[in-house]
Write a structure and sequence with these properties.
The radius of gyration is 17 Å and the shape is globular. Strand 3, helix 3 and strand 4 form a beta-alpha-beta unit. An 8-stranded mixed beta sheet has the order 1-2-4-3-5-6-7-8, with helices on both faces. The chain is built from 12 helices and 8 strands. Helix 6 runs antiparallel to helix 7.
Length: 294
């Protein structure tokens, strides 16, 4: 069983047709028919969706707690401005869980080559951001801009952060998925207090897609990115919520200092899942950055 703390800390072991999202989160079982398609990856397959007709491509990598439906509230706006791509990483949403070790950046490479995308902006949240950083280091020729709500491989986590993860792990160890969902919803760092609609949305997504919490994690560790951040030369935006856990702010600071062209925006009254909490504000900040740096 996969630990939800793995998702929250970015997996410590290491991180053309307009399609609406209606109904996506309501089914949510691996292999269900959906509005998107599947692409074969080593030993498995991953589910993806794309929309929009702009020549500028943006690929969205979800966090470690929810699958790609986490982007539902911002997806229509991105579809208006870009050729947007989102996908379920292995074990999340409609993508089957891995049964052997794999490299997360390889899956993204295969997907983009399958879609004949040679250049894209990459937007990653949490562990999706960690993967985005690793992908940019592996394939600098394919990344035009980088948007991160991220953690970075090679930087440690505080004892407070790791102890916090046990609140989610203990119910899962007993097979108590509803208990783990309840603990996640109560976490004041994931979604800031008072953002009740976002909390309900997260609970609904996890209840409909329990595999997001329970899949086994076979993602292989890669070379730590922290000492290599200076190699990234593309325009980079970091977006963090002011109510997120201090570790995330520390990671964001390290990434901002390490990437020469990075700048950071802090959104008020939101936690880790800011695109669920304040989707209009999040979209406006990110889209403005991407269009200004095209």
């Amino acid at each position: 069983m996969r630990s939800i703390a793995d998702g929250l800390c970015g997996a410590i072991l290491t991180g053309a047709l307009c399609l609406g999202a209606a109904g996506y989160a309501q089914t949510g079982k691996s292999g269900d028919a959906g509005p998107g398609s599947f692409v074969s990856v080593a030993g498995s397959k991953i589910y993806y969706e794309e929309c929009g007709s702009s020549p500028q491509t943006v690929v969205l990598l979800h966090d470690g707690v929810l699958h790609s439906a986490a982007w539902d509230e911002v997806w229509p706006e991105f579809c208006k401005h870009f050729h947007a791509i989102r996908y379920d990483r292995r074990g999340y949403g409609r993508s089957p869980a891995a049964t052997e070790g794999y490299i997360a950046t390889d899956d993204l490479t295969i997907l983009l080559r399958h879609l004949r995308v040679s250049h894209a902006a990459v937007l990653g949240s949490s562990h999706g951001g960690e993967i985005s950083i690793n992908f940019t280091l592996d394939h600098p020729e394919m990344v035009q801009q980088l948007v991160l709500g991220a953690v970075v491989g090679g930087m440690p986590y505080s004892e407070h952060f790791l102890e916090r993860g046990s609140a989610f792990d203990k119910p899962l160890e007993k097979g108590d998925v509803p208990g783990a969902i309840a603990a996640a919803v109560k976490d004041r760092f994931l979604i800031a207090p008072g953002n009740d609609a976002a909390s309900k949305r997260m609970a609904d997504l996890l209840a409909a897609n329990p595999q997001d919490l329970t899949h086994a994690n076979f993602e292989l560790p890669v070379k730590p990115a922290l000492p290599r951040l200076g190699e990234i030369r593309v325009p980079t935006l970091l977006v963090t919520g002011d109510a997120d856990i201090p570790d995330v702010h520390a990671h964001a600071g390290a990434i901002e200092a390490g990437i020469p062209r990075a700048r950071r925006v802090v959104l008020k009254d939101v936690g880790h899942l800011m695109y669920l909490e304040k989707p209009k504000e999040f979209s406006a900040v990110v889209i403005d950055f991407l269009e200004r740096n095209e």
